[in-house]
């Protein structure tokens, strides 16, 4: 039997492979995310999202870094969504309108969910799907962090 202490699990960074790093930086800057480590210039971009980090990295370089093929690139749903949790239905509507105004593509207009929430979907310039959502049991604090009910 081992007395080894397992590492503490944590999700710290979500890195998106992007086709045009300049356009993606402009999009996420326009959404108001706070870019950090700007010394990386356009090689990679990091954004403080309030508890985790969103990274942007050229798609082909990210694939190479992970030893994965760059082609074929998926033309449709990748099986992953990112969430922008909100405090109210009104905030969901405001986030959707704001993102669309900054160049996001509408995937699904905000509507009621079967679990008592409210959500809509938009896509960034590379088609990465974002959900703007308010959901029971998930609160967003003043610290911008998500707090889950027990």
TrEMBL record:
Coiled coil: none annotated. PROSITE patterns: VOC (PS51819). This is VOC family protein. PANTHER family: BLR2520 PROTEIN. Pfam families: Glyoxalase. Residues 10-135 form the VOC domain. SUPFAM superfamilies: Glyoxalase/Bleomycin resistance protein/Dihydroxybiphenyl dioxygenase (SSF54593). It comes from Bradyrhizobium campsiandrae. It comes from the Bacteria.
